[in-house]
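Task: sequence design from structure.
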């Protein structure tokens, strides 16, 4: 017998001996919910076992090593699925944006949000903290509790921060008064 024939025979024997074991460890991951075909994993495991035999690596506990191969193949397939799903979702978002077409109002609001965010970031740290929390919808009492400051200090920093913000926005020709 040639060395290749011996390897092929050993390969067939391993697959026959561990087929149920391999299938069990693949099916326990419930891959159908990710749209991954268990047969793809089985094929990948077979290739990895073949490569193992080609390297003539001395494996002490073959069952444990095969389980490691299965787990590794499953993880690789799930990573591939996650990558592909991310690309799919990004492309789906681009298509949805194209279908919506250009909306100048949305563009104007996005630019306004960016200007406000830049102006808020330019505030001094203590005022910036309070203004950000206020813009997120927190009350003076909630902000004071969160920052562990007195309500008077919080109110003072908020009013000064909002005045600074208003001034910075006015410098950029953005004025808004709620009447």
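Answer:
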């Amino acid at each position: 017998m040639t060395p290749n024939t011996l390897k092929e025979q050993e390969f067939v024997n391993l697959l026959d001996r561990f087929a149920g074991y391999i299938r069990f460890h693949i099916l326990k991951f419930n891959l159908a919910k990710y749209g991954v075909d268990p047969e793809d994993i089985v094929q990948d495991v077979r290739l990895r076992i073949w490569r193992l035999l080609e390297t003539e690596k001395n494996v002490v506990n073959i069952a444990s090593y095969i389980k490691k191969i299965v787990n590794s193949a499953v993880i690789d397939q799930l990573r591939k699925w996650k990558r592909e799903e991310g690309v799919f979702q990004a492309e789906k978002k681009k298509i949805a944006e194209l279908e919506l077409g250009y909306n100048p109002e949305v563009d104007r609001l996005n630019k306004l949000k960016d200007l406000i965010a830049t102006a808020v970031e330019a505030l001094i740290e203590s005022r910036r903290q309070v203004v950000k929390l206020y813009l997120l919808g927190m009350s003076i009492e909630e902000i004071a509790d969160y920052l562990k400051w007195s309500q008077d200090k919080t109110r003072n920093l908020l009013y000064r921060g909002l005045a600074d913000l208003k001034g910075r926005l006015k410098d950029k020709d953005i004025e808004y008064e709620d009447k």
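The helical segments are 3-27, 38-55, 62-100, 104-121, 125-135, 140-147, 151-171.
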